[in-house]
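Exam review. A common question shows you a sequence with its structure tokens and asks you to describe the fold in words. Practice with the pair below. Do the first one on your own.
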Amino acid sequence: MWSEFKAFISRGNVLDLAVGIIIGAGFGKIVSSFVSDVLMPVVGLGLGKVDFTNLFVALNGESYETLAEAKKAAAPTLNYGVFLNSIIDFIILGFAIFLIIKLASKVQKAPAAPAPTTKDCPFCLSAIPTKATKCAHCASSL
């Protein structure tokens, strides 16, 4: 069983997948930080100094200045501002992955066309093997 596991883990596909997951997780953190720390403050400033993380509805009917105050009071809240941040994270992450895949497909070389295995007879124009010295259709010497 150990040797089967070792063979499974050492296959290239599994290692590539593991590297992809680790890089993807790190990339996701970078995008989340970009959205919450760079993009949303600028958007909030443009919309009149709105902090999206503090957009919430207290479900107990009381009023709180910030989400931190509501959480400190253990009030149930509907955090739609945090949800908006997550949606924007997802859209930016999806767009970035789209661009990376598009760039990778441009960089990746197209597979070379296989060498032809047939040629046309110059006399009867029938397809014959490339190594043929005599045409099987018209019996011409090539």
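Now try the second one, then compare your answer with the model answer below.
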Amino acid sequence: MHRVQFQAYGHANVIGNHRTTVEITSESALTPRGTCIVGVRADMTLQSLDSQLKRLAKSPNTRIVLKLTVEDLVEEIEGRGDPRLTYSDLVSMVARKSSFVCGRTLMIEANKAASDLNRSLIERLKQPETAIDCELLFISE
């Protein structure tokens, strides 16, 4: 298992009701149209991950877990890798329930989207000062 930790923050415009994706972005702005975005100002991007993690992400036998912790609330989004993943995006990472892949895709076939996350967590994420401790796990099977 390989692990990387980073931090992101809440935003007043967090809605968290998208049904197929959940996103963390390094951007500081968020409009109400970004219904899948649950964290902004992330201090890590997909492109900044090391080459070993990018290699692991290309295997369909790798489980990828995004763990979001806000105080006493923890959510885990679990999906898998895919040979088409590039991790080339400089801004966003997106967990997708579908098998669609682009440069922003962190994982496919995720078990949760933004609308599946604990509503108490989403309420806390509407506060810009809320820090999100994020952890990515890459588990080879």
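Model answer, second protein: The CA atoms of residues 68 and 75 lie 5 Å apart. The chain has two helices and eight strands. Full marks require stating both points clearly.
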